[in-house]
Amino acid sequence: MLVILKIVKDLIKHDKRFSVGLFVILIVLSLAILSFFSPYGPTVRRVVSRNLLPSFEHPLGTNSLGQDIFWKLTYAIRNSLILGILVSLISRIIATANGLLSGYVGGTTDRILSTITGSFIVIPRLPILILLSFSLRERMSILTLVIILAVLDWAWPSKRYRAQVLSLREREFTYTAVFSGMNTFKVVFKEHFLFLIPYMMADLISGFLWAIAMEITLSILGLSALATPTIGTMIYWANYHQALLRGVWWWISPPIIIAVLTVVALYMLSSSISEYLDPRTRLQRIGVKA
Amino acid sequence: MSLLRRYIVPRIIQWLIVIFVGVTVAFLVPRFTPTDPVQTTLMRVTAYGAINPEAVAKLEEILKDLYGLRGSLFQQYVRFWKHLLRGDLGPSLTMFPTPVIEVIRNSLPWTAGLLIISTIIGWTIGIIIGTFTTYFSGRKWTQILDTILMCIYPIPYYIMALVLVILFAYVLPVFPLVGGVGIGLKLSFSWTFVGSVLKHGFLPALSLIIIGLGYRVLSQKALVSTVVASDYVTYAEAAALPRRKILFQYVMRNTLLPQITDLALSLGLVFSGALITEYVFSYPGIGQVLYTAILQGDFNLMMGITLFSIVGIATAALIIDLLYPLFDPRVRYR
Fold first, then answer.
1. How does pLDDT run across A1-25, given as a tens digit for each residue?
2. What are the residues whose beta carbons fall under 8 Å from the beta carbon of B52, sequence distance 6 or more?
3. Would A78 disulfide with which of A32, A152, A178, A204, CB 3.0-4.6 Å?
4. In the CATH scheme, what is the code of domain B109-297?
5. Is-contact B269 B7, C-beta < 8 A?
6. What is the radius of gyration, based on Cα positions, of chain B?
7. B189 vs chain A: nearest CA distance in angstroms?
8. What pTM does this model have?
């Protein structure tokens, strides 16, 4: 925990992208938290007048279903964030376990696990996703979606973790630790994890970005959990009721703007973290010529 | 002779193995999904009224035959290969009795035209931008370009496509919203036809180019930054060679090899189509067909398209492998 805090403090101080990204994410997060104080339920209809322009009473206006767009948006952000975080966490837990096992144990175990990983990598994911969510569409919920997405997104990161472990295992300090009698468990958690943690932070974010994008994609095909408000389903329903043709632009633009802000801010965070990982760029930033 | 035996033949064998495994997977996957095409079709037929049970049973037999679902899994598999080698992919379920081959033949040119052109344009622009922004890093304009690209790169494709539709079809209605060509136009080489195709293809192509640009620029930047740091570039700069020569012949040329590999692989992806693009812009390509096939449980069509895409990617990889030594003298035929 302390290591993470120290890295974050360092990044805020030295990288503008990191602080901008963090600022935007905090705003998005506080919007999501606001949903708990919403005066309307997440799925109720016809509680306010329809198609009102943004005003003091309804900060983002109301839609054709008689819903307040601002409060609807807070629910959507909350659900999308939960979905992204869960998918990213679950898939990365599978990936880490698989990658570490593969990398440290080696031999036949490694060969079997790598083959499984390899076949998950070549599978074309979008058609499979469509096929799965189409056949599950009656029972589709955020949780089902989380599981499907997580199962399809662990293979690449697992391959990367394995590569990291393989390189860490051959480093000089590993040999020093092993020869001075440190047990394997301690080497992994005290020495190697320090290298893996920032790497995992960047990787968690990229998993999150993928999950959000896939939820939006499935939503517009009408294959996501359509009854639950998410950023994707908000866009779906706005399109379904032809918000654009009827000129209700304040219905469809908030989810689009929030989606763009969130992914760009997160991408800034992750690229700033990955740059931090690379010692050459770190030196450049402090002003030392390589 | 030894070139043929030691370099070309092993690669062709590898190509055959990849295709064989891929086709086998494509055969198995739809058979393990919960949708049963025979029951779906039967349900659709019987929904219109009572038919006597004998006729239903007969219909079921015929349908099983058409979908290649008769017998054990192994028998089905053997029959599948026999038909395949004769170039017979069976009839499409949704567009019965049109053969799958013909459905693909009708939609592939649309997708291929759109994807090949936008991939090549995006690739070229991406490489040029990536090289310049890395080589001249630190200037004002490269920083602005970098920031713009950083904001475009993570945006989900669908959002990008939707924003383009809003901007250019609603706010400024300059481009048509649906289809690959104006309604009622016949295939011909007249100006109206070609113009209409270009106008309809512009927005889908633009969305693909923009979304592909982010990745291309990033990968090119990574490649260029290692080349720029190498000794021969430092030497060329110290020798005061013209900037243009350093940039194009020393830096860019040495980054092209992995990029060409990447280009060929993405061209191989043409056969699986751009599903979301075609859906958003109602473009009549193969991705759209695949989407309908999945929703309707059309086994034959799904397998036909998967087959084409597997062969496409494998062949692209084979061609790169065979041409590699021409691009890079360091790769000797081993």
1. 677 788 788 788 878 889 999 999 9
2. none
3. A32
4. 1.10.3720.10
5. no
6. 25
7. 34
8. 0.81
List all residues of chain B from 263 to 282 with a beta carbon under 8 Å from chain A.
Answer: 272, 275-276, 279-280
- The answer, yes or no, to whether the previous bond of B53 is cis (omega within 30 of 0) is no
Query: Do the interacting molecules here have an ipTM over 0.90?
Result: no
Cis peptide before B284 (omega within 30 of 0): no
A248 contacts in chain B (CB < 8 Å) = none
Structure token digits, residue B121: 């344009």
Range B261-280 burial, b when 16+ CB lie within 10 A, else e: bbbbebbbbbbbbbbbbbbb
Nearest CA in chain A to B34: A135
- Choose which CATH entry (1.10.3720.10, 1.10.10.60, 1.10.3430.10, 1.10.1200.120) describes domain A2-285: 1.10.3720.10
What does the block give as tokens for A209?
A: 């970005």
- DSSP letter at B54 equals H
| Neighbour tally for B201: CB within 10 Å | 20
The tens digit of pLDDT for each residue in B97-146 reads: 788 888 888 888 888 889 989 999 999 999 999 999 988 888 889 889 88
Q: What tokens were used for B284?
A: 């009549």
Q: Which element (helix H / strand E) includes B152?
A: helix B140-152
Residue B219, both tokens: 């990968």
B309 lies within 8 A of chain A by CB: yes
Integer Cα distance of A112 and A107 in angstroms: 9
Q: Which residues of B touch A212 (CB under 8 A)?
A: 156
Q: Tokens 């679902």: give the residue.
A: B69
